[in-house]
What we know:
40% of the residues lie in helices and 0% in strands. The chain is mainly alpha-helical. The mean pLDDT is 90. Residues 3, 10, 34-35, 37-39, 49-51, 53, 56, 61-62, 64, 69-70, 72-73, 80, 85, 89, 99-103, 106, 115 line the site of heme C.
Amino acid sequence: xxxxxxxxxxxxxxxxxxxxxxxxxxxxxxxxxxxxxxxxxxxxxxxxxxxxxxxxxxxxxxxxxxxxxxxxxxxxxxxxxxxxxxxxxxxxxxxxxxxxxxxxxxxxxxxxxxxxxxxxxxxxxx
Length: 126
Ligand code: HEC
């Protein structure tokens, strides 16, 4: 997988969002576009390049049946909630060393919160 070549195009929307976020609050649905190249949410979400993210809050890390996780993720012992997701999205490699999720991280706390609120809207789907 040429993930490294994908990265600049994945990061650009985040950077653009960061530049324009001073006047209006961050929009989780817009922010999720940076995740959507790898992750699906909503009805019929399935594993793609990354696991589907429905019903994420209270879910054990590395536990969806249709995705081949890294040993690091499976053995992390993390249960996803606001706190664990926020730190993971800030710096994935720091929270789960050896994770296959190649993602720079979101430094802005308001953006992480908006993203988590968006993900929470898929909490009742599986
Ligand atoms: C380049 C592809 C890619 C991008 C972009 C990406 N992820 Fe991931 N993500 C992955 C992969 C691959 C995994 C599985 C990692 C592993 O097994 O170590 C993962 C795992 C996760 C997990 C753990 C899921 C579980 O079932 O335990 C969460 C939560 C997550 N990603 C959220 C996000 C969010 C939110 C974004 C956007 C801000 C995002 N990811 C962006 C590829 C990506």
